[in-house]
Design a protein that fits this description.
Length: 694
């Protein structure tokens, strides 16, 4: 008999779409609420079936979509084994469905899963042989599902979508549910790494690519998008290897080759040296037991034996040993690898032999851990007759990289030009610069980009500075006058009379037609394509700027912004900082970018500025959000008071005035900081003499 699935009060709150306080009130006020079956007095657990029965009996059980029901069944499968293992089992089953063509509810496979549970022994030898043949290239393919209901849900989902699309949706949910440093690499970073590998390749192409610590296969999937057809991976965790193998098999669809092994690549590599065009790797960080003693005489340490504290440099050398001469390696590494004293000799050898080609600094938050900015190392294995050896190393600050999608045009240099011959590209202060190898081989061999990008400041011209300051003083005075005129006065201090508001969730307004919720395309809206249409990105909303992204023109499925639309972010940057906007003429016609919600009100019933004022309230956003490292906003759970349109417009006018006031203050602050910066630079370079003390 299978163990019953248990849930906490937080789980019950998510199931019923209410707050935890509401669940506590139910327990206190309803004597028939299910009794705890485990846990502690302060953290009780309940049987899921009992809770769902009680919620259904009292009319509090929401209607689940097909995707939500599938995820609920997956969580049941994960009970006791963990979410990653359950995801791996589901991925293997979807790969089996794809290869055998079993995509209906009456498949032969489901005939063996009629009971409430499925054990391998109940399949029979014939069925086990069939699974083994279908998934013979997968790591331990017979580790399939235990839950018959989950198999039915997966098979049913595969009739509505392809198995690849089903798994893709589940992976998105899996990534958002993860509460730890996930086993994957964010899609944007993975795409960037694959782009760099292709740009650094001598022939500008990728065919055979390896990831020796592949996790869920994000980097190999990015390489596939860049044209790679032979995808090889390893991961020490069996379930991640199963998940990556199934994912890549579904994505390739028979138009390529993939192989993923469940082994530790450092201790037991399944690949010989010199067989790959490129290696993409996001290795484990800060591991002291990576095998330094056991592997002390390994032939891979061409650039020096890594110390016990330099596991990342062991991964760097392992990756270099697996590419052909001239092959490319792109590594995602913590910034400490660039400067730790214990790795100085290996860094010097990598630089001296021309293996290290570039170090790029990513902004904090681009990839976990979110509080630090990681580095990308681009390396090339020496040899191969691909031209002159490297004489310079490229250093780049990607946070300051010019926006390649801005309306102001594209930079005149490409990544391929920068990586092939950085010394021939004119340096851009603070953004990128080629440094001679001889300048790097000092006592520390510090490869941190920031010190290498800090150029010498020129002496400001005093006459130009005076003219700039005169114009800035007039502009700053005008902005401050505007802000002063908009500042709240005594008429803002009148107390409101009447009882508490009746609040309504946006889900109710959407059901009644007063509001329409639109989201960007699942596979588009990134704002980083080569199209001609402007895209409003999440960064634009958070920073209060005009649409800066670019998207493909003529996309009929894309969401286009109209004047009066209310736009809110899909994720929160911090608990006390929220952003929302009412679209104006500048935004009109732009495409809606990823991680944004667009609310289109019926202006005969709802005032846009009234909506944006209440929706941007931090407390409102927090009540409608979930997650820890990535806090996602469920727009349907946001609440607004039910007020007549005339009263809404009164509140809307007040919110609009506050928006104009804060915008003026922000402009004044930016102009003031820029003015102070120019004066500070003039003083520190000796161009100006300080005025007499006041």
């Amino acid at each position: 008999m299978a163990a019953q699935t248990t849930v906490s009060t937080s789980d019950i709150a998510r199931i019923a779409d209410v707050g935890r306080a509401t669940v506590t009130n139910w327990r206190r006020r309803h004597s028939d609420f299910p009794a705890p079956t485990g846990g502690t007095e302060s953290r009780p657990t309940f049987t899921l079936e009992d809770v769902e029965g009680w919620l259904a009996e009292h009319g509090r059980l929401p209607q689940f979509t097909e995707q939500q029901q599938l995820w609920r069944e997956l969580l049941r499968e994960a009970e006791g084994s963990g979410l990653t293992e359950a995801m791996a089992r589901a991925a293997l089953f979807l790969a089996f469905l794809e290869r055998e063509g079993h995509t209906s509810r009456e498949t032969r496979y489901l005939h063996y899963a009629e009971g409430p549970d499925l054990e391998h022994e109940s399949l029979g030898d014939g069925m086990l042989d069939e699974i083994g043949r279908a998934l013979q290239d997968m790591p331990e393919p017979l580790a399939l599902l235990r839950s018959a209901s989950l198999m039915r849900e997966l098979a049913a989902a595969a009739t509505r979508q392809t198995p690849d699309e089903v798994l893709s949706d589940m992976l998105d949910r899996y990534a958002s549910e993860s509460r730890r440093r996930g086993p994957g690499t964010p899609a944007a970073v993975a795409h960037f790494m694959a782009t760099l590998a292709k740009a650094a390749s001598p022939d500008g192409a990728l065919s055979a690519v390896l990831d020796p610590a592949c996790g869920t296969g994000d980097l190999l999937e990015a390489a596939r998008i860049q044209g790679a057809t032979q995808l090889d991976g390893q991961d020490r965790e069996l379930h991640l290897a199963q998940l990556a193998a199934s994912r890549l098999s579904l994505r390739l669809g028979g138009k390529g080759y993939c192989s993923v092994d469940a082994e530790d690549a450092l201790a037991r590599s399944r690949h010989t040296g010199g067989e790959f065009d490129a290696v993409l790797c996001n290795p484990p960080y800060n591991e002291r037991d990576w095998g330094a003693d056991e592997l002390a005489y390994d032939s891979r340490w061409e650039y020096g034996l890594p110390s016990r504290s330099e596991s990342e440099l062991a991964w760097v050398q392992h990756s270099l040993s697996r590419v052909r001469p001239g092959g490319v390696v792109v590594m995602l590494l913590p910034p400490s690898v660039a400067s730790r004293s214990s790795g100085r000799r290996i860094r010097a050898a990598l630089v001296r032999h021309g293996a290290l080609r570039a170090v790029l600094a990513l902004p904090a938050g681009a990839a976990p851990p979110a509080h630090i900015g990681l580095h990308l190392w681009v390396l090339r294995r020496p040899g191969g007759g691909n031209g002159a050896e490297a004489s310079h190393v490229l250093f780049m600050n990607c946070k300051s990289l010019p926006d390649m999608n801005s309306r102001g045009g594209r930079p005149s240099v490409t990544y391929r030009e920068l990586l092939a011959a950085p010394e021939k590209c004119l340096a851009m202060p603070g953004v990128y610069r080629a440094v001679p190898i001889t300048d790097l081989l000092d006592d520390t061999v510090d490869l941190t980009p920031a010190p290498r990008l800090a150029g010498e400041r020129g002496m400001p011209q005093v006459d130009d500075l005076r003219r700039t300051l005169s114009g800035r003083r007039d502009s700053l005075g005008s902005v401050l006058s505007q802000a002063s005129a908009l500042a709240p006065s005594d008429d803002w201090g009148v107390s409101r009379t009447g009882g508490p508001w009746t609040m309504a969730p946006l889900a109710d307004l959407i059901r009644t037609g007063a509001l329409t919720l639109l989201k960007p395309k699942a596979k588009g809206g990134s704002g980083d394509s080569d199209g001609d249409d402007p895209v409003l990105t999440a960064a634009d909303v958070n920073e209060g700027r005009s649409p800066s992204g670019r998207g493909p023109a003529g996309d009929e499925d894309a969401v286009r912004i109209k004047v009066g639309d209310v736009i809110i972010p899909g994720t929160l940057l911090s608990a006390d900082r929220t952003a929302a906007r009412v679209a104006d003429d500048t935004d009109a016609g732009a495409l809606l970018g990823r991680n944004l919600h667009l609310l289109r009100p019926d202006e005969a019933r709802l005032d846009p500025w009234f909506l944006v004022g209440f929706l941007a309230d931090p407390a409102n956003m927090q009540r409608a959000s979930q997650g820890t490292s990535i806090v996602r906003v469920d727009a349907r759970r946001l609440q607004v008071p039910l007020l007549p349109l005339e009263e809404q417009q009164t509140y809307g006018a007040a919110f609009r005035r506050l928006h104009t006031f804060t915008t003026a203050l922000r402009r004044a602050a930016l102009q003031g900081e820029e003015t102070a910066g120019k004066l500070r630079a003039a003083l520190t370079t000796g161009a100006l003499r300080p005025p007499p003390p006041a």
